[in-house]
Amino acid sequence: MKIVSLLGGVLPLLVLAACGGGDAPNKSKSGSPTTASTGAPNTGSANTAGKPDGSAQSGGSIKPEGAQNPKPAGSKPKKLVRRPRINVMVVKALLGNDPAAPKAEVASTPALVALGRALFHSEHLSQKGNISCASCHDLSTYGVDNKPTSPGSTGENGVRNTPTVYNAARQFRQFWDGRAESVEEQAIMPVLNPIEHGLADEAAVLAKINEQQELVEGFKKAFPGDGSPVTAKNFGVAIGAFERTLVTRSRFDDYLDGNRKALSNEELQGLKTFYEIGCTQCHISRLLGGHAYQKLGLRQPYNGKDTGRMQVTGSVSDKHSFKVPTLLNVEKTGPYYHDGSISTLEEAIKMMGVRQLDKKLKDEEIAHMVTFLKALTGKLPEEFEPKK
């Protein structure tokens, strides 16, 4: 398959987020991405082209940090950041809309979502009865376990970093290599992966389900018209329905939808740096990713052993190509890259600047972008917020 090219040319990739989907087929840890046809932030309305962001006069206004909370005497004052000029029309064109993603084939119902939630959290559906989807996709830590790679039922680690399940169904494909079209198709793959849940085949999955009466009853309620509702297809439909509810919304969404005060001067400077440096040549859409494949090592060589999408297509042209990861909640989903080899967001940005853009980024540029990326962190659903 040809590498997707956007905005008129081969595009650099800022592979930051630990997301996009799981390990190599039948070898490693897979992920559970998610589309949100229900609950996805709306795209808002367009703005006047070329109009500077904010309500300030030409040149912007200075808004000192800490104005309402004076700093102790003797402390070093922080450098003031003037509100930058932002072409909102350009930002909305690049980042205002969700990627085209598969929709659910079965209409969601409370019973279907409840079943999907139960299956997602069931440790019984693993070889040794010791892990569930939630073991690696911890919903209280933004859908990841913050490990480079994750252990399966037997304790063996996969080869790819666990992606977040939040906002995953909103992406155009699932897994780092895009081998599954939808979250419904993806759902059973980790369960059958020998290094993950480790069940032998679909028959083994259904046998495990039938051992749990509460799960059987859940299938009957979720699929009332089916004479024999416990099927592999219905398994995927149920988990997919639950994952489609895992959507976050950030202050950046508020900004895109018209609240020009949603982002601080510092965050807007980071946004401006992000697109002026060239990151939006690849990280576009409302998800800032999740919409295309890209070659890792586009400008400077990458010699990792994982050949990425080539394992799916068999085409040499897809060597080292991976799904562009979403950057939503990226400050929470480290470590980074498909192999979890980079521990900090700063280092990930620095390395992507070299590999994808052939640019040695300045510390100040990296700091600006980190400030912006933190504005992409959304609030977790109340039921999954960490308990205080």
Notes on the structure:
With 388 residues, the protein is an all-alpha fold. The protein has a domain of 134 residues: Cytochrome c-like domain (Cytochrome Bc1 Complex, Chain D, domain 2, Orthogonal Bundle). It contains 13 helices and 2 strands; from the N terminus they run ααααααααααβαβαα. α2 crosses α8, α10 crosses α13 and α12 crosses α13. The chain is globular, with a radius of gyration of 22 Å.
Supply the number of helical segments. 13
Shape: globular
Q: Which sequence of SSEs, written as H and E, runs from N to C?
A: HHHHHHHHHHEHEHH
CATH topology of the domain at 110-243: Cytochrome Bc1 Complex, Chain D, domain 2
User: What is the name of the CATH architecture of the domain at 110-243?
Assistant: Orthogonal Bundle
Strand content: under 5%
CATH top level of the domain at 110-243 is Mainly Alpha
Tally of strands: 2
Radius of gyration: 22 Å
Strand order of the largest sheet: 1-2
Uncertain runs: 1-22, 26-68
Cα distance spanning the termini: 47 Å
User: What is the CATH superfamily label of the domain at 110-243?
Assistant: Cytochrome c-like domain
Q: What is the percent of helical residues?
A: 25-40%
How would a textbook summarize the main sheet? 2 strands, antiparallel
